[in-house]
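Dear colleagues,

For the upcoming journal club I promised to circulate an example of a predicted protein-ligand complex. I picked one with zinc ion because it came up in last month's discussion. The inputs are reproduced below in full, followed by the predicted structure.
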Amino acid sequence: MHSAIQNARKEARVILDRYPEAIRKNYVDVEKIARLAGIRVVKEGFEDQRVSGFIQRKTLDGQPVIVINDSNTPERLRFTIAHELGHYFLHSSQSVHVDDVDTADLILYRNQESSQATHIQEIEANQFAAELLMPEQMITRDVQELRKGNTGMSEIVERLARQYRVSQTAMAIRMNKIA
Ligand SMILES: [Zn+2]
């Protein structure tokens, strides 16, 4: 695995350790992580529906802000917040970073190897987001527990996606990478 990706996941675990109060029993409250890190989260309607969100590090009042497109699903909003947090913690040289609808799909629908060279920062932000929203330790714990009860894989994906408030696609990919 690319070391930058490992580094992105490691950084997500550092952030989870830093803000344990954002870890609920069954899922991670990413908006709370943003708040605890001093970042304002704003949801608004975008004129350009291809834009899923952006992070602005320097603002007039000095507080960094993540702005997300509120026409997206709650699962997508959470993924975008986690993705922007990835840019915030990993790519500190960028003052503004804008993401369109394709960005978060890099991990989901495209071949990771071929997009690595050109989109490494997006892949890093997505790996960060995946680990933040679906921490390996918590997922492993829950999968083991559900397997004991003879729950089938597709039902495990469905149940854990609901529990962690992510899309089923994101959960299926995450479980695939962990197991
Ligand atoms: Zn991005």
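Two points we might discuss: Helices lie at 3-18, 30-36, 74-90, 105-109, 112-133, 136-148, 153-164, 168-178. Residues 106-111, 113-118 have pLDDT under 50 and may be disordered.

See you all on Thursday,
B. R.
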